[in-house]
Amino acid sequence: MTAPARHQVLDAADFGRVALLLGGDSAEREISLLTGKAVVDALLSKGVQVEPVDAIGRGLAERLLQGGYDRVFNALHGAGGEDGVVSGLLQVLDLPCTGSSHAALTLSMDKHFSKLAFAFSGIPTPAWRLARSLPEARASSRELGLPVGLKPNNQGSSLGISRVDLPVELDAAYRDAARYGSEVIVESWIEGGEYTASMLQGEMLPLVQIVPPEGDFYDFHTKYESASTRYLCPCGLAPDREAEINRHAQAAIRELRVSGWARVDLMLDSRRDLWVLEVNTVPGMTSHSLVPMAAAEAGISFGELCWRVLETSFDRDSSSSGEAQ
Ligand SMILES: Nc1ncnc2c1ncn2[C@@H]1O[C@H](COP(=O)(O)OP(=O)(O)O)[C@@H](O)[C@H]1O
Ligand SMILES: [Mg+2]
After folding, report:
1. Which domain holds residue 281?
2. Which ligand 1 atom sits closest to the C-alpha of 187?
3. What is the pLDDT of residue 322?
């Protein structure tokens, strides 16, 4: 990946007035509020003139215009913010924003389309089907063979995800996923280790290994509520293996035209083969979050990380932010 030249900002005043978009109406609202508050506090302590703006309800365009802002830090996870909807509005309002272009956000939020792009370009991703009804989900799981994972197509934060080991578990798993939308991903389940790769301004940070409690996966509880999930950074892999995995992660980022910053979720199966699950374009920045952990390992403090993500709001040139290969 050709890393775009970093637009370095040395003086907080050069950012102007910053709106930190957080909250919103999505199912990931609560996580976004945590991310947003952590980022606001960090930027304020570095002298940036930043104000939180909750994207909930109508009237966001008016609030942004009346605030007289110069740029936006997008801390909205999930529908509305991470899927490109707000980014389209910001483009219309001529407000530069952190992170990926509108098109890249939309593509990355759609797991089915992301996986089509990965599969087409030879990036390993678990076999899957898109199901729009319970009979389709049943047929998909028979075709793929158990165990499978069921998850909403357009959702994050591990909401609505279940592992299905037995046919009798499928209906409940489908209902759980379908609560978040009519499109449900049925995907071959990968047994093995979970890793995540972070990109900041075109460069890859150290991998983090996620070790959920025995017998569990990285579901909403182990992600946000459990103290027994362990995170390893350095991740324990040999440096050349880590570099190879990061190259796959970069390829996934490039295929989706993602830029600025991102986090790629990956699995290594028992044969140590790699599988890409998804690319997150507005990764979490809470106290449990993984990009801050990877940045710390690279010697980048949380405050500096927030500052550098804010710098990406100067990169906005969606036509050249990542050419498809
Ligand atoms: N195919 C799979 N095999 C094994 N674990 C999976 C699979 N899909 C999802 N998971 C588990 O569920 C978690 C969330 O899935 P992911 O696809 O990353 O969606 P989200 O957008 O909710 O983070 C992963 O971090 C992983 O622990
Ligand atoms: Mg994920």
Report:
1. 192-314
2. 1
3. 40
